[in-house]
Amino acid sequence: MQLQPRALPLTVGEPAPWFSCRTRDKQRYAFDTVAGRYVVLSFLGPSSASGEALLQELWAARTRFDDVRIAFFGVATDAPENASLHDSVPGIRFFWDTDKSVSALYGAVAEDGTYRNISYVLDPTLRVLAALPNAGPGHGATLLALLDKLP
Which neighbouring-strand residues pair with 34? Predict the structure, then answer.
């Protein structure tokens, strides 16, 4: 079944679309295999100040992402060889969505082609608990505060 791109971001309660995408270590990492823990899926798009600010805030809280309770996945559209993003297993990984097909599934690409930097918090069944647009500095703090409230 081919999933269709979305014009708008996912909303609370919707199932997250399953996909396979390239990572630094795998040609086709199957996203559905991460079920069973809370997941943060952040659409970083091409290199941007808002994406960099988010990553700095998350690296400062690195120990929260352990693959047992919470995992973080960043979705970048830059070519991997042009990016400074590196996985830190357990807990932090990056997808290389150079054709923006995964971003489109999650409504991170607007109809006019504008990229929406957005973070989703998914429950252990991969349903959307929160959709948080990344408006720049402070996004990471907002995201971490939400994670602190999870059971």
Answer: none
Q: 129-144: string of b/e by CB count within 10 Å (b at 16+)? A: bbbbebeeeebbebbe
Question: Which three-class secondary structure state does DSSP give residue 126?
Answer: coil
Q: How far is 64 from 66, CA to CA, in rounded Å?
A: 6
The pLDDT of 105-111, averaged and rounded, is 94
Give the end-to-end CA distance of the chain in Å, rounded to a whole number.
Answer: 34
Q: Are the C-beta atoms of 72 and 90 separated by less than 8 Å?
A: no
Looking up tokens 């199957």 gives 30
- Reported as a pLDDT band with limits 50, 70 and 90, residue 2 is low
